[in-house]
Amino acid sequence: MTTYPELQLHIDGEWLGKNGRDTMPVLNPATEEVLAQLPIASRDDLAQAVAAAARGHAVWSVMSAYDRAKILWRTAALLRERADHIAELMTLEQGKPLAESKGEVAGLSDILEWDAEEGRRTYGRIIPSRVAGQRQLVVKEPIGPVAVLTPWNYPALIPVRKISSVLAAGCSCIIKPAEETAACSMEIVRAFIDAGLPKGVLNLVYGVPADISDHLLKAPEVRGVAFTGSTAIGKQLSSLAALSLKRMVMELGGHAPVLVFDDVNVAEVATMSAMRKYRNAGQGCINPTRFYLHDSIFDEFSERYVAAVKAIRVGNGMDSESRMGPLAHERRVQAMQSCVDDALAHGGKLLCGGERPAGKGYFWTPAVLADVPNTAHVMNEEPFGPITVLNRFGDAEAVMREANGLPYGLAAYAFTKDGARANWAASTLQFGMVGINSYTLGAPGAIGSPEPPFGGYKDSGYGSEGGIEGLLAFMDTKFICQV
Fold it and tell me: What are the E-state strand segments in 334-386?
């Protein structure tokens, strides 16, 4: 078992502990025990982090893309060496089964290596001029220091995906990760520092999220913001960033529909769906949530889906037999109970689960609801937890309107063997990412792959992470006309 570390900030190349700072406890969600006390960045700490990022950007942005890539490659190698340690920290403080934590950490190095190489290929272009002797150039330049704000549900993947793109684009970074998963993000930052990242290029702070975001988004030195979180908070941050015209990449909430047509292999899709839905205890923005099943397969699908869900063993993530760990904190348990109670009050049916086991820990048995009216809360707001809704449909056009009817547009899925219907679903679903006969939005793997862009439509945000889009979001376009 790994030893939980002393938690620290990292500002201007220095690791900073409690030393008179206010602190907050970090808990193990499986046992409710306090793992450590987390130092909270003071206003002076935040001011120093902003100043350090400005100085670091001056150094990093003029370094050759080749030399920046070498540091990202070394970071990737260190993360591979430290993967088991980071995965254990993740399970201790976030709760997910250790196998899931290892799967998440295993993909981090691929992201860094992809971005390292893409950073060397952020090409400009030459535009033929109408004037003899005149050159017209288009070049890409890093925008400046970027504030990165990340959540607790994927405490390694999301920080690395953001930091990697920001650094590969030539920008410096101040990251404020989730306080609940502080050790995981601290060890990720340590890998960058140990790989030789210059002082001030990457700074790590923790504290009250609203206070830190307010400070960073008002700082004129900060020129970009990358945020993953709720739509409500995203809108607040967007308003604040607009006052100083900061560039933003927003990955916000989802409420992923799944359309299952009558020509599928029901047993295969039902089992696959249950496994994907309850990964990370359902605490994922692209986890399938609203299932729309054709009338002719509803009964068989429901029976097989419920059987698969009942077989999921809920327990401490460090137990190799556990297939679903606890929720992140007490608030998530209360939110799940509220969702189920509301759905039942609106006439829905509870097919299984939906209970809090006795004893310590923020555990919740995975719930399956059926025939839930659209007036219920769970049909309109993402539960962000281990709750599935199974509803039925008969008319494809009508169910497509229902799938597209919410303001969210992050991820959606459809299952059918009919090629024409698959093409229709892919083109008609109003979402930034669509899986057809697949829940893996990217190459096979625990967290997909770094090559495709990751982003949503409508209230699910704007901009993309991953792929070349992830780098270009943090680069300005400069036109040069030279005689």
Answer: 349-352, 367-370
**Residue 49 neighbours by CB distance under 10 Å:** 29
User: Does the pLDDT of residue 442 top 90, yes or no?
Assistant: no
Domain architecture of the chain: domains with CATH: 9-252+461-482 (3.40.605.10), 256-445 (3.40.309.10)
Residue 148: in which H helix or E strand, if any? strand 146-149
pLDDT given at position 449: 85
Name the helix (H) or strand (E) containing 137. strand 135-142
CB environment 242-265: b (16+ within 10 A), e (fewer): eeeebbbbbbbbbbbbbbbbeebe
Strands 135-142, 125-127: pairing is: antiparallel
Residues 6+ positions from 307 with CB-CB distance below 8 Å: none
Size of the chain in residues: 483
In the numeric block, the tokens 């900060």 are attached to 222
pTM: 0.95
Structure tokens, 173 = 């970074």
The residues, ordered by sequence, that sit 6+ positions from 2 with a Cβ below 8 Å of its Cβ are 84, 85, 88, 89, 92
**Other Cβ atoms closer than 10 A to 470:** 29
User: Which 3 state secondary structure label does DSSP give 446?
Assistant: coil
Q: Please, which pLDDT band fits residue 211 given cuts at 50, 70 and 90?
A: very high
Task: Compute the distance between CA of residue 412 and CA of residue 404 in angstroms, rounded to an integer.
Answer: 9
Per-residue pLDDT for 444 more than 50? Answer: no
Tokens of residue 320, six digits: 């190799």
Q: What is the DSSP letter of 252?
A: -
Q: Which residues of 119-129 are buried (b: 16+ CB within 10 A; e: fewer)?
A: beebeeeeeee
Q: How far apart are CA 223 and CA 216, in angstroms?
A: 10
Buried b (16+ CB within 10 A) or exposed e, 282-299: bbbbbbbbbbbbbeebbe
Q: Which residues are catalytic?
A: 251, 285
CB 249 within 8 A of CB 80: no
pLDDT tens profile 121-139: 999 999 999 999 999 999 9
**pLDDT tens per residue, range 158-179:** 999 999 999 999 999 999 999 9
* Dihedral sign (CA 263, 267, 269, 270): positive
Q: Report the C-alpha gap between 116 and 118 in whole angstroms.
A: 6
**Residues forming a β-bridge with 258:** 291, 413
Query: Quick count: other Cβ atoms within 10 Å of Cβ 437?
Result: 14
